Amino acid sequence: MMSPLSIPMVSPPGFAIVPEDGEGKMTLRFRGIADMSSIEPLDGYLRAVHTEARENKVAAVVVDFRALEFMNSSCFKCFVEWLGTVQDMPVDDRYKVIFEANREMHWQRRSLNALRCFAMDVVTVSAA
To which H or E segment does residue 39 belong? Predict the structure, then answer.
């Protein structure tokens, strides 16, 4: 049984991440626009997610982008670094990262496909 999620919601103006815990997984629901003001909080947040996911031995972290309107390339770099860290873990200790995309937002398809190609052993993308 996973302990309650201790990671607080990140909320620079116009951007939010709402965490939820579940049986064996963590869900991060993204909303708004992730721009230059979001880079530093996002980077720290993903580091905290990684630490908590490892400590709780979660099987998956679900990243729900369906309500995310836009994310700049610098914010995506935070995801590349996070996924690289997960991919560098011993195979038996890794957790999966599942991105839920909004099919109507074409930037998500391109960007998330690039993340999937970067970390094929870790990332899954589903579009609704």
Answer: helix 39-55
Place of tokens 């957790």: 95
Whole-prediction pTM value?
0.91
> What is the torsion angle, in degrees rounded to the nearest 10, for the CA atoms of residue 48, residue 54, residue 55 and residue 58?
110
Q: Residue 122 and residue 3: Cα distance in Å, rounded?
A: 23
Nearest in space to 82 (alpha carbons), one of 68, 71, 72, 95: 95
What whole-number distance in Å separates Cα of residue 91 and Cα of residue 87? 8
Residue 99 in contact with residue 123, Cβ under 8 Å? yes
Q: Which CATH class is domain 15-127?
A: alpha beta
How high is the mean pLDDT in each 10-residue block of the chain (128 residues)?
Answer: 60 88 90 94 94 94 97 96 97 96 92 94 92
